[in-house]
Design goal:
alpha/beta, 244 residues, four-stranded antiparallel beta sheet, 37% helix, globular, Rossmann fold
Amino acid sequence: MALLEARGVTRIFGRLTALDGVDLVVREGQFHGLIGPNGSGKSTLMKCVAGALQPTQGTIRLLGRDITTAPPATRARMGLSMKFQITSVLPGLTVYDNALLALQAHGGMMDLVFSRTRQALDDEVRRNLARFHLADRSDDLAGTLSHGEQQWLEIAMALATKPRLLLLDEPTAGMSIEERRVTAELLRPIKDRCTLVIVEHDLDFIRDICDVLTVLDGGRVLDSGSVQHIQASAKVQEVYLTRV
């Protein structure tokens, strides 16, 4: 059974058809990349999967359950987590407190209000920060982190709830070449516990970490398959040579 399955997903905004009958199947344990020209529908598809948008037509299933119209909170409880393109860390809180809040969010309201879980979660918070090279920045305000470090913090926060499926929308946008290399190193170890769907414009980065690529163009699936298959695809080559 597929972990995530989208069938015939269409999303219309007025006169614009952003997605036009998209099919997507993501298997457990895969790193699945979404690529394509600007405006091809990648981010719209991710938002439909996350629940930020609802499809005009089509169905989306997670773990075999129809979540097409389910609210984001329901999807999160089922094990879906998403990091959007724009960083949403809380700059006025410390790095530690951002990571702590990500863990506390799934506890009871009274525990959150009175921070009853702070001591119990301390080891886990520090482990999560260490995995993303942020242990030495735990007492610094999140707003003082570099752009790349803020992206790593948000990925750490998205992984705090131990999701079955993580959606990343352009996680390396604005990063230096070295930060992109480190990001790939940080993501590889999560593969044994979390499936990943990632939108990315850096083709070298996405080819390096993904098992399967799906190419969108004009709101439709142009091709899908292994990295080797996509690299050899004449249809994909034509798009990237003439329109990207």
